[in-house]
Amino acid sequence: MMNGREYIESLRKYRPVVYFMGRKIQSVADDPVTAPHVNAAALTYELAHDPRYEDVMTATSHLTGEKINRFTHIHQSTEDLVKKVRMMRLLGQKTGSCFQRCVGLDAINAVYITSYDVDEKYKTDYHERVREYVKYVQKKDLMVAGAMTDVKGDRSLRPHEQADKDLYVRVVEKREDGIVVRGAKAHITGAVNSHEILVLPTRAMSEKDKDYAVAFAVPVDAEGVKMIFGRQTNDTRRLDGEIDCGNAKYATVGGEALIIFEDVFVPWDRVFMCGEYDFSAELVEIFATFHRQNYGGCKVGVADVLIGAAASVAECNGVAEASHVVDKITEMIHLAETCWCCSLACSYEGFKTPSGAYMPNQLLANVTKLNITRLPYEWSRLAQDIAGGIIATMPSEKDYANPETRKLIEKYLKGVANVPTEERMRLIRLVENLSIGAELPESMHGAGSPQAQKIMILRRSNLEMKKELAKIIAGILPDDNYRKIRG
Ligand code: SF4
Ligand code: FE
After folding, report:
1. Catalytic annotation on 189?
2. pTM for the complete prediction?
3. 286-465 falls under which CATH superfamily?
4. Cβ of 255 less than 6 Å from ligand 1
């Protein structure tokens, strides 16, 4: 297993093509814009070496029997699923950010499960390829970017109906030694600082979409792969200093990229689905279930930091004991723990798939994520309420550094007498960072937008059974139990 430093060093050996704000990023590990994201991901490596966290951060590979980082593990029990979300809450607490590595973990598990089912039906050998790939990822302790969301063009049209055929990733050539793929994936978390990209289809496909039903893995610097790193709220504050960032060490959320595949060659041993369009929906649903399971872990870990920041600002302001502040903090805790309950529940209610790997309960995982599209807005609102309007008006770090204005800021931004002004400023910036930044849209759309969860919730909720229950109680359908007790 690599540690944090070794992970950062390992990135320097890759040469991904990454653009940001009109320039090329030469070293993702060292560029000031990407380095904080790298640091957050590095903690997924570093904490695996901390004896206090060994149980949640590491696992035993069912393929090799070796000790591995849990981010490369294929879940072998519901206990594994629970440990996964415990690991995510822990990392949310330690980074106050998205640590990115979960998407690849979810992608390898989804493709592991689905490839088994595809092989059962078509007598293909995808599952064996996936097993070999997972062994490779485990052995080298690689970070894998899961790349699912296509750019989609006209959303009312299917992949093959698009005016431009490349708006979903597709196979453009099949060769003896592999396939050639073209297209783009959008909003891919952690892509620029991963070692590998694992591509999955993004939606259910019909026979005419066959070329789009493709899953494969390539290194981030494979020939023909280009990435354009996305902007985030206040991202260039990283270039201005430390305090103004709020969370200078670990950024805010994942760091997403548009990945373009310009006729990229993929050897057959890295192709995990190719044309089996009838399994595309299954793969999507399994991946989505895994990723939706996570959000009551990672986002709640970040909420722990935000709750701590809001409570600390209240102390700086001398209002920590005010009953309405106590009530708001309590409400934030309640909201966060509600989401945590959801992540735990869908994990404990997980089940074994035919492949032998475990996955969470689909209905409850979708409930988890739907709550995350809402409750973080409320706990962020409460944090802003507690911290005050200064989160949007405070003078900059540069004015604090300027001797002409420093004294004035020191004097007039002071809260209670025993807390240094700078401490109050840092906490206010952290509340700003966590409650205004890209965290909220990520909560809304990461792992799928709310409507995607609603579709799954309705599909998995067995509404017919509920109607039957109602009709029995209403006396429309016979009630066998009642008949037994009353004759
Ligand atoms: Fe992991 Fe959460 Fe980031 Fe998704 S949003 S990659 S689950 S930390
Ligand atoms: Fe996400």
Report:
1. yes
2. 0.97
3. Butyryl-CoA Dehydrogenase, subunit A, domain 3 (1.20.140.10)
4. no
